[in-house]
Amino acid sequence: MAGGIVHFEIPAEDTARAKNFWGTLFGYQFRSMDGPMEYHMFQTGENEGGAVYPQQEGETGLITYFLVEDIDAARGQIEELGGSAEEKGPVQGMGWYARAKDTEGNAFSLWQSDEKAPAPEESS
Asked: Which among 64, 57, 52, 58 has a CA at the least distance from the CA of 4?
């Protein structure tokens, strides 16, 4: 379903502390992912989930990912509507993401599933 929330990220100053908080509060079971940065995923539903990761440059607040069928078209539409969207990036074997902001400066992200997505260094 396009527009559905499929993932959210929790930036954390202390990932162990954040995992303890969210795991205790909601019973989330974390799975550490391999990759270029520390990333701990959990499931919230059959096809939905989230992750805790080290915050970047002091970022705070949950980052929500909305499902789209065509990430390039969605990025273009965001720009046409007065928002902004960064270039898309791959998550190998899973799909593509792009960070964006609405007209009010609220941050969100897009997600397009694609099992053929390359590793980040192969996508340039």
From this structure: 64
Q: Which fold has domain 1-58?
A: 2,3-Dihydroxybiphenyl 1,2-Dioxygenase; domain 1 (3.10.180)
Q: Where are the beta strands (DSSP E) in the chain?
A: 5-12, 31-32, 40-43, 49-54, 63-67, 84-85, 89-91, 95-101, 107-113
In order along its 124 residues, the chain shows pLDDT tens digits of 578 899 999 999 999 999 999 999 999 999 999 888 899 999 998 889 999 999 988 788 899 999 999 999 999 999 999 999 999 999 999 999 999 999 989 899 999 999 999 998 755 4
CATH number of 68-124: 3.10.180.10
Q: How far is CA 54 from the centre of its chain?
A: 13
Domain ranges of the chain: 1-58, 68-124
Token readout for 68 is 């789209």
Number of residues that make up the chain: 124
